Amino acid sequence: MKAGQFRGTLDSDKLMRASLIIGIFKGLRLLFNGPLEYGWPKTPNKGLPYSGRMPLAYMIEGGIPAMMKVRNHIDALRGGM
């Protein structure tokens, strides 16, 4: 899809998910330099709230509330909270 070519509509759920994903990856780019920038979501994490799971699996299982927790966690790691 080329920029400016999308003619569909997104409901509020999809817009929220897109916003959270963009924010998560923006935060990861600011936090990490190198492979973890994109690999962090697939890296098992022993800390809360992940309990040994990959953040990606945690978000898939928990939906928007889990995505919000991941976004807040990344912001906190960056010193934004």
Descriptive report:
With 81 residues, the protein is mostly helical. It has one domain. It is 58% helix and 0% strand. The protein has 3 helices and no strands. Helix 1 (12-31) crosses helix 3. The radius of gyration is 14 Å and the shape is globular. The termini are far apart.
- The number of E-state strands comes to 0
- Termini Cα gap: 35 Å
Average pLDDT, all residues: 91
Q: How much helicity do the residues have? A: 55-70%
Shape: globular
| Beta-strand content bin | under 5%
Note the main sheet. Answer: none
- Number of self-contained structural domains: 1
Order of helices and strands: HHH
- Give the uncertain stretches in residue-range form: none
Q: Helix segment count? A: 3
Organism: Rhizobium setariae
Protein name: DUF2384 domain-containing protein
What is this structure, in a nutshell?
With 81 residues, the chain is mainly alpha-helical. It has helices at 12-31, 36-39, 55-77. The mean pLDDT is 91.
Defining traits:
0% strand, DUF2384 domain-containing protein, 81 residues, globular, mainly alpha
Topology (elements, then pairings):
Layout: H1 12-31, H2 36-39, H3 55-77
Helix pairs in contact: 1-3
